[in-house]
Amino acid sequence: MQLHKAKERIEGAEFQVILVGMGTPENAEEFRKKYASSFPIICDPEKKLYSAFGLGRSSVTSMASPSVLVKSLRTMMEGNLPGIPREDVKQMPGVFMIDREGTIRYSYYAKDVSDNPSVEELISLKTLINT
Amino acid sequence: MTNNYDKAFDSEVLFSDNSSQLLSSWWERKPLLLVFLRHFG
Q1: pTM of the prediction?
Q2: In CATH, what number is assigned to the domain containing residue A20?
Q3: How far, in Å, CA of A119 to CA of A3, rounded?
C-alpha cells in the first residue's frame, strides 16, 4: 500500500489515518523514519486490536502462493524493499473506516498477506462518510 | 469478523510516542481510517 506517498491526497479526503502494527514503539519509530511517515502509529504487540477487529492469520501455503510471490516481486521492483519482519509474518492485514459515531462503515479483510486495497479505493471512502 | 454497521471496538491503545489514548477519542474528532499493517518493515 502506497499510503505514505499519497498522504496529501488522503488528508484531503476528510478523514484521518492511523496505522496499527504489532511491534514496539521503537519498531514503529524506525518504520516512521524509513518511510518518512507522519501518520500516527498504534503499537499492538499482543495483537489485541487485530483480534478485536477479526483479523486472522494466513496459512503457510497461502503465503507461498504464486499470486503472493508475484505481488511481492512487483512491490520490490517499485523500489519498496521489505525489511526483516520481527512480528508475526502470518498475520493478515486489514483496513476499516469508522465514522464519528463509532460505526464501522467499511471493512477490508485481506485475501492473502500481500493483499491491500488501492489508494484510489481508500480515497473514494469519503463518499461513505458524507452520507 | 467485523461487519459494516457494527460498532467499532474501543480501548486504550498505545501509540509510538508511548502515549495511551482511547481509540474513540480519535474517531469522535474526525472519521478514522484504521490501517492494520502486516509488519513494520
Answers
A1: 0.82
A2: 3.40.30.10
A3: 7
